[in-house]
Every structure is written in C-alpha cells, then in structure tokens.
Specification:
Strand content: 5-15%
Radius of gyration: 24 Å
Strand order of the largest sheet: 5-2-1-9-17
Distance between the termini: 38 Å
Length: about 625
C-alpha cells in the first residue's frame, strides 16, 4: 500500500510557507484548555515542550533521567550545521539541501530535507540569543568548521561539547516554562505504553523508576522525542539508558516503523577494550578536520607509529577520495576502515583500529590553537586510553552510532496514529540511508522549536477530540498490560542477568547486520534471534521487586523490545536487495566497492506495520521522487 506523506504542492522553497499558511490556528485563550504530552527532554523534546508551553498549552514533560539536562543530546560533540555562509565559501540553503540528500544516498524525502536546510539558519539565531557559547573568530563573528560530506564550512560548534551547550539552552527555555506554570516535569519516569482511544493517541502509561508505581496520563496529543535504537547492538556510542521502548510500544499500537535497517556506523570511535565493556566512546567527527587517518602500508606492521615513515603510511581516505579526503561521509569512511583492517593492516589489539594523527596539524597550527578547538576531546581520549594525542596518534574504529530509521511520519511529523507526533532521532524523516555529521542537532532543534509547535497546533485546531481521562477503559487495559509484563520478568527467576542476553543479541546483530550484510548472514540472524529470546524468557533472573528502584527490571523491559526490533531490522535489511548508505549488502556493490543502489525497485521508504507476535509485518511503501536533486551514483572521489 502506498503511503501519503501529505507534502504541500508548489515549488520546494515555498512548501513550508504554504503549509504554515494553510494550518488552522488555536485561539490563545483556548490553548490553555488543551493538554499535550512530550516524552523525552533532549534537543527535540526539550525544545518542543518549551515552545508548546510558551504558546500557552498545558504540557506534561517526561524523561527517565534524574534531570532533563541528562538527555543523551548532551553527548553530541562536534557541532550543528546551518547554511549561514559566514565563510563566504559557496554555501547556501540549496547546497545544504543537496549535500543532505546526496549524503543520505537518495533515500530521504526531498520536501523534509529542504525544510530542514531552510530552518537551519533560524536555529543558530535562536541558540545564540539563548546565550549558547558558540566558538567565535577573533573579530567576534561565529566560527565554522567542516564535517564529513561537505566541501564548505557550515558547522557551528562550542569546542567539543556542542550538544551539551545546546541542551542547556533548551533546558533553560524549558525551565522558564516550568516556572511559568505551563510545563509540569516528570523526571525518573519511563513511558511503557501508548494509549489509543477511538484510533487517536490520547495518553501514556508510565512507571515511576524510584517507587515502581504504574500510572497513566491523558492528553489531546502525544509527542515522542525519545531518541534512536542503536543500543539494540549492545555496544554503541549511545548512553546505556537509551532504548527503543517508547517508539516500539507505539509501533505495536499501529504506528508504522520506517527503514529500520538504516543504522549508522560512526568511523571515529575509541576501539573496544574488553569483553565486558558496556558502551563505546565517540571521538567527534570534527577531529577529521585536522587529524589524518592512516594505517601502515605493510600487512602486520607492528612498529609504533613514530617509527613508520610517511612513505610507508597509507593515508587511505586521501588516496581513495581525493576530493573529500578525511572528510568523506561516515558510512564511506567506516567501510574504508573496515576494509583496511580486514586486509590485516589494522593497528592495536586484534588489528581493529586505524590511526587518527594530529602530527601535521600541530606542526602547522601549534598546540594552543588545536587545544582551543578540541582540548576536551584530547583530554577525554587520554583519560580513557592512557595515551596523549599530543604525543601519539589516536586509535579509532567504527561503531554503531545513530539510527536513521524510526517511526514513519508525514510532513507534519505525525505518525499513522492520529495525534501521535515524533521528533528528532525517533522518527525517520530527514536523513535517508546515512546521516551527515552535525545534522542530528539541527534536526532535533528544527523539529522542536520550529515544526512541532505549528503542526501539533493544527491537529488540535481541527477538533473532534472527545473528552478523555484516565478512567477510560483503554487506560486501565494499558496499565494491566504493563503490570503483566513487569510481573512476568520478575517471575521467571532463572540464572542469567539481562546483560547476558543483550550482549548475545548485540554480537549476533553486529556480525550479521552490522557494517556489511549478506542474504546468508541476515537469514542466519533471523534463525538465531528466536532461540536467544526463548532463553531470555526461560532463564532470565531479575533481582529485587517492582516496588523500588530496579535497574535490572528497567533493562529487562528494554531488552525484551530489542528482540522484536532486531527481527524487524534484519527483516527490512533482507527485503532491500540493494546497498544504500548505512545499509551495505555485500552482494550489491560497484566494481570499486561502493554501495550500488537499485532505484528502479527500491526508491521508496519501507514502512512496516505490526501484525502481531510471530507474524510477518506488512510492508507499506512511500515512493520517493527526486525533482530537485536528480538520482545519480553517489561519489566523493
């Protein structure tokens, strides 16, 4: 079945203005009568809750962290894109749009991408007005640097802590509305079920993570801004608490899940150090502005890097992609690193690493300049590895980072369930098969500050919302479902902790559906996931009770959802007989090893509908049309 994204008519540069003009508005006095739920307090959720509260709606803001400012957006390091063209180097809204569509390997929706590029210029003004301490040039102008997939400098940054500073800006806007009484906060509270009444999203069921109390909240609309699902792989750059439960509960209630196989591998992660490591640490892509990536030319060369002369080094990104060099897009740089390591030229333990070397940059610019740009990143690397990047090259290796897939949304960011909106990484909308660096923060803030406040209001203004409170039978049924799941985990009383099963699932996914996938590997994964899940429900042991703070119980629910998501991810990857961006099927590559798309058969968004446990999901297609960026073989050479 073909899906209608409800994209406005007219030229692409007029679509968003036209849509805003066509929207119905809510009388300011009436906004106080409408309650909205926003789940998640990262850049998308925090900005959305603050903006909706400032408009006058009653907003309930939920997060499972102990404070909204602990959202994972705080971990973003390198920067945020915007087409300001302060450098006068040829940038424009149209070029940012082009780079993003091309970077996503022509698997994104043009209308959404253009709107994102268009709004990017407003985001910087908004954040600068909030006091976000962006880096500045000597004369006071905001500074820019480059990121992968672009030949211009359009990335605004605050050293290596851009996400933290932007999140603090959104957080203070949110706290202003808390003080004004328009927003109520519910920290340490996890959403465990979506409540649908008469086909519309009307509330959520949550668990208080401190007391274990299960309760419900009703609203006129629900906004999910709960991040991505990269932790399905167990080891990823995501915070340990990041999970898919909120969007997975919505999927099981009728929201379609789009492009789950589009998972991004980031090329500059600190390599894994041990068997029982629980997460990986990202080194910002911004480091590739001044660091050069290389490996020894000779297989098995175990000399220390300072003993390997330039003539015996392979700066492979500069060799293979001379136009973009070390700033090749993430999917391409990651596969290139895997290839040289597979050839036996990797460095460090197990040969699973490549060098990111700042020797030439220190000689050219001096230590003071580079420390001003990346000092906290250098310090972070030294604290984790014991090596000082001033003296020796960093060792990096690709790791799971971002998920381009997510709940399917239309142009208004509404799912197939009326009244359920999704922002930020939790939706699929803007990045296609690969996200360019510094675009996640841009999308989160565009959704939260500039899109959802309009589109949610339009939905409310259309009316037809019957009065519903938590006494409705749908809320009681949802609470019983949550309580039953909780009791089931506690009653298994097996012998193995949650992490045992999560680690086993993650290793299977990484090997069979990671940087490279094949028909055989995906079929193997789909055979192996059910036995691991059966063992989970037979031999899981959750200590403690449901009436207290219980991290094991929290993780049990999240991993249970990961088992189902893992199957959908592999199912989607198996059906897509092509390579595109972060989805690299080995059978489909060009003679020189690049991704080979099949535009005749797969130029569509794959949106999957839940059909019940142990039943194959139904595929719905949103055809993708490219009127402004013609389909072409993606090349960065």
């Amino acid at each position: 079945m073909a899906l209608d994204a409800r994209i406005p008519e007219g030229p692409i540069e007029k679509k968003w203005e036209r849509r805003k003009y066509e929207m119905k508005l809510v009388n300011p006095a009436n906004k106080r009568r409408h309650r909205l739920i926003v789940v998640g307090t990262g850049l998308a959720g925090g900005a959305a809750a603050a903006s909706l509260g400032e408009l006058g709606y009653e907003v309930l803001s939920f997060c499972f962290q102990d404070s909204p400012r602990r959202a994972h957006s705080i971990a973003a390091q390198g920067g945020i894109n915007a087409a300001k063209n302060y450098q006068n180097d040829g940038d424009s809204v149209l070029r940012l749009f082009y780079d993003t569509v091309k970077g996503g390997d022509f698997r994104s929706r043009e209308a959404n991408v253009y709107r994102l590029a268009e709004l990017s210029v407003n985001i910087i003004d908004q954040c600068a007005a909030q006091g976000v301490p962006f880096a500045r040039e000597y004369g006071g102008e905001l500074a820019n640097r480059s990121f992968g997939g672009a030949l211009v400098s359009r990335t605004f940054y605050a050293r290596g802590q851009t996400g933290q500073q932007l999140l603090l800006g959104a957080y203070q806007a949110l706290q202003r509305q808390v003080a004004a009484g328009t927003v109520r906060q519910f920290p340490r509270t996890e959403m465990l079920e979506l409540v649908v009444v008469d086909g519309r999203a009307r509330g959520i069921v949550v668990r208080d993570l401190v007391t274990g109390r299960i309760s419900s909240y009703a609203a006129d609309a629900v906004v999910l801004c709960t991040g991505g699902y990269g932790n399905v792989f167990y080891l990823s750059t995501n915070a340990r608490g990041c999970n898919c439960t909120a969007i997975w509960r919505a999927y099981r209630k009728g929201a379609y899940f789009a492009n789950p196989c589009y998972t991004q591998i980031h090329p500059t992660c600190i390599p894994r150090s041990g068997e029982y490591q629980s997460k990986l640490t990202l080194m910002s892509e911004s480091l590739r502005n001044d660091g050069r990536v290389w490996v020894p030319k000779r297989k098995g060369d175990a000399r220390s890097p300072d003993q390997i002369p330039d003539a015996e080094r392979d700066y492979y990104l500069e060799r293979i992609y001379p136009t973009y060099g070390n700033l090749a897009p993430r999917d391409i740089a990651s596969r290139a690193a895997k290839n040289v390591c597979d050839e036996g030229r990797g460095v460090g333990p197990g040969g699973l690493g490549v060098y990111l070397d700042f020797r030439d940059a220190f000689a050219r610019l001096g230590r003071k300049v580079l420390d001003e740009r990346y000092g906290n990143l250098f310090e972070m690397y030294e604290r984790i590895t014991g090596d000082d990047p001033h003296d020796v090259p960093m060792r990096i290796y690709p790791a799971v980072h971002y998920t381009m897939g997510g709940l399917w949304v239309d142009y208004d960011l509404m799912t197939t369930i009326p009244g359920l909106f999704v922002g930020g990484e939790a939706n699929f909308s803007d990045h296609g098969a690969n996200r360019l660096g510094a675009s996640a923060l841009m999308q989160g803030l565009a959704d939260g500050y500039f899109i959802l406040p309009y589109t949610v209001g339009d939905y409310i203004a259309h009316g037809g919302l019957a009065k519903v409170d938590t006494s409705h039978a749908a809320f009681r049924d949802a609470e019983r479902e949550v309580a039953a799941r909780t009791d089931r985990f506690l009653s298994i009383r097996g012998t193995k902790p949650v992490d045992h099963f999560h680690r086993e699932l993650g290793a299977l996914l990484w090997n069979d559906c990671g940087m490279a996938r094949t028909k055989a590997s995906l079929e193997h994964a789909l055979r192996e996931i059910p036995p691991i899940r059966e063992a989970f429900y037979r031999d899981l042991r959750v200590t403690g009770s449901g009436e207290e703070l219980n991290n094991e119980l929290e993780r049990a629910g999240r991993v249970a959802d990961y088992f189902e998501l893992a199957e959908l991810l592999c199912f989607d990857a198996l059906h897509r007989n092509e390579s595109a961006g972060g989805h690299f099927r080995v059978e489909y590559q060009t003679p020189d090893g690049e991704a080979r798309r099949n535009d005749d058969e797969f130029a569509y968004v794959a949106a999957w509908e839940w059909k019940g446990p142990d039943t194959a999901p139904a595929l719905h297609k949103e055809p993708l049309e490219f009127q402004y960026v013609p389909l072409q073989q993606r090349s960065y050479k």
